[in-house]
Amino acid sequence: MTNQLTTVYINGEHVPVESASISVFDSGFNFGDGVFEGMRVYNGRVLMLDEHIERLYNSAAAAFIEPPMTQDELKRDILTWLRANDIDHDFHFRPIITRGIRTPPRVDPRFASGPATVVVLGQAISGTPTTGINLVVSRYRRHGPDSVDSKIKSLSYLHAVLAKLDAVRRGADDAIVLDNRGCLAECSASNIFLVKNGQLTTPFAISTLDGITRNLLLELAAELGIPAREKDLTTYDVHAADEVFLCGSGAELMPVITFETQTVGDGSMGPITERLRDAYLNSLDAHGTPIAIAAGV
Ligand code: PMP
Asked: So which residues are the signal peptide here (predicted)?
């Protein structure tokens, strides 16, 4: 068993990594006209498979993209592909669905000349370091529902790339992206939580991706008896917080140790962050779909 990829899934075929390619006329390449997911394999299981595929199809529906297969068919194909690659641990993968080939490549989607393109690729990934990260505020804003809804996980990820680049150029690791009112939305590729006086808060999922890890953490907090609620938050709340952490399928649960160069808490992972992180890591098996299910398919 391994976490190294040998084939990429392209429209139902398993194509060797070295020769995997799609058309330069693809809508995803030309216009960022597609949707995707980012998900993880732990210990022989795909974490939150149903939730990710449902969000992928919701994103596609909101973008008027018609996937060429049902959710169940795509789930079966993903499990078969993972199994064929012998993947069973520490792996991050991205199912991508674009509007398909468009010749000539014009914005007008009526020029789409074929079915949606479906690609699944991925790479080995290791656990998130717990030493913590340095966070700043980005000058880029996240769309509200009055524009392209941030709940659509679309291929147009330039906002995230620029927020991350901006943070790194300023010597930080990541940046908080504000919404169009100046309230906290999320970070470049993760949701954000604050802890103050034992209470957990996170922004409403309005100008943010409706994070699957975020929602799982809200459930785990309830199970652990940690008061948690969604709330409009500003940078004031981050300065005042006892603990700050980011979360996501890729990020897992990542403590923040400085905010705009000010130390958060005592500059290490706080106790509530640690309890939630432990609960999250302990819940992975319970929320995972075994890859081996695909064996006889
Ligand atoms: N926000 C953004 C912009 C992201 O890219 C991600 C990662 N998918 C998240 C939040 C966290 O979402 P999830 O927990 O579903 O991975």
From this structure: none
